[in-house]
Write a structure and sequence with these properties.
Number of helices: 9
Distance between the termini: 63 Å
Largest sheet: 9 strands, mixed
Shape: globular
Order of helices and strands: HEEEHEHEEEEHEHHEEEHEHEEEEEEHEE
Helix content: 10-25%
Mean pLDDT: 95
Number of strands: 21
Structural class: alpha+beta
Length: about 425
């Protein structure tokens, strides 16, 4: 059956079983992988992926079920489970499905639809050759590369029908440096690609991280404790900003009114130099979201504009629950607009601080307090990046960090999912032995 056949069958079955409203998302795709382990080719395989997600609303009660089999018998069973889940759930007036949108595009195509597997193999070989010749102390513990192709269909009982065909390349790496008995902390990087024109090591921050890995063989703890400047690199910034969104702007904290930004719409929450956007439709984003799982067409959106909070990151359900506007997308394709200074100039003005490439710590509290270990990171002293550090802690508050931005770099890096600069934050506690 086609995706449309499956969705129509499931929706008709849900209505017959008692659903007032229902939606169905069908996804079918294929991934072709070429992998390296321990510096050697280890695996070539193809994976078929299929899934069906059902949602039924019965008297304002929601039931959801997901399955990875597409035959009618499995769908019939899932329909029964979905209705049973709805009937046993708590009534919630905010539960609904999307309505027919205004006229506009309903079928989307993005990315590379026919793979060049020979070209992908050549890029991996090139990567491993370059690694051995230019970074002899670095061991590529794992490199996973793939081409993925997906067909997704959203359909509901209100007549909404949206489809998306997308394909693209991707890679992720895990590596560490070794010299005798010394070894650096492991690090990793990943990117999405819409072509094979650029060598893997030239994408985003991958090359920089490999160069720094060898320097980390001589990492040592810093002495004492100080309050300084934390320079967060693009490789780490996406994770930090995602935590900010989750802790301050997402459904749960806005519905529960536990966000410190709950009364901050239209007010300053960050330095005026800071603008944060989600950009799934941007050409730099590989196979970005075209519609949400709730059945709404996606648009690019500004979350924070020159330090002013413009909107929360709410689903349609969260919007109905709180009365605040629905977010225009559900993507995590983040962009921070560039600053006016070069990274070199920003670093040159820092007396003492740390360049943070990876953060290892627990989930920050709802108020934004965080504490964790700085991994793959370097000390800044008198305007210069100096020693690699180990056993070094960083702590502070995420909300306060955004108000204490010292500088945002002109330079930005794109990994196919985000477009991010380096950002320097003052007032961070940095401590060693």
């Amino acid at each position: 059956m086609t995706n449309r056949d499956i969705a129509q069958y499931a929706l008709e079955a849900l209505k017959k079983a008692g659903a007032d409203e229902a939606q169905c998302i069908v996804s079918q795709g294929k991934s072709d992988e070429l992998n390296v382990d321990g510096g050697e080719f280890s695996l070539m395989r193809s994976l078929l992926n299929s899934s069906v997600s059902l949602k039924a609303i019965v008297n304002h009660r929601k039931g959801t079920v997901s399955l990875n089999r597409l035959d009618r018998e499995s769908i019939d069973k899932a329909v029964s489970e979905c209705i049973a889940a709805a009937e046993s759930s708590v009534q919630d007036e905010a539960e609904a499905i999307s309505s027919m949108p205004e006229k506009g595009q309903t079928e989307f195509v993005s990315g590379v639809l026919e793979p060049d597997m020979n070209g992908l193999f050549d890029r991996i070989q090139e990567c491993m050759h370059t690694l051995k010749s230019q970074y002899p102390k670095v061991l590529m513990e794992q490199l996973i590369s793939e081409y993925s192709h997906t067909n997704i269909l959203y359909m509901n009982t209100n007549g909404v029908e949206l489809s998306y065909t997308a394909g693209g390349y991707g890679f992720s790496t895990m590596f560490s440096a070794h010299e005798g008995e010394k070894a650096s902390s492991f690090n990793g990087y990943g990117a999405n690609l819409n072509s094979l024109e650029i060598p893997f090591l030239e994408v985003g921050q991958q090359k920089i991280l490999l160069e720094e890995s060898e320097k980390q063989l001589s990492a040592h703890p810093i002495e004492g404790k100080f309050t300084g400047t934390l320079v967060i690199t693009p490789a780490c910034l996406g994770e930090i900003l995602s935590t900010v969104i989750g802790n301050f702007m997402s459904d749960s904290v806005i519905i529960d009114k536990t966000s410190p930004w709950i009364e901050k719409l239209g007010e300053k929450v960050a330095d005026a130099s800071f603008t944060l956007r989600t950009i799934p439709l941007d050409d730099r984003i590989v196979c970005g979201e075209r519609f949400t799982s709730e059945g709404y067409r996606s648009e690019d959106e500004t979350l924070i504009d020159k330090g002013i909070l413009k909107t929360f990151k709410l689903s349609a359900y969260g919007s109905r629950k709180t009365g605040y506007p629905r977010s225009l997308n559900s993507s995590w394709n983040l962009e921070v607009l560039p600053g006016e200074s070069s990274l070199e100039d920003i670093l040159s003005g820092i007396d003492k601080g740390l360049v943070l490439n990876r953060f290892s710590g627990g989930q920050p509290g709802t108020n934004g307090d965080f504490s964790g270990v700085a991994k793959n990171s370097f000390l800044i002293e008198n305007g210069k990046v100096t020693d690699a550090v180990s056993e070094t802690m960083v702590s502070g508050n995420l909300a306060e960090l955004l108000l204490q931005i010292r500088g945002i770099s002109k330079e930005r890096l794109c990994d196919g999912a985000t477009v991010l600069p380096w950002i320097a934050f003052d007032g961070v506690t940095i401590s060693g032995k």
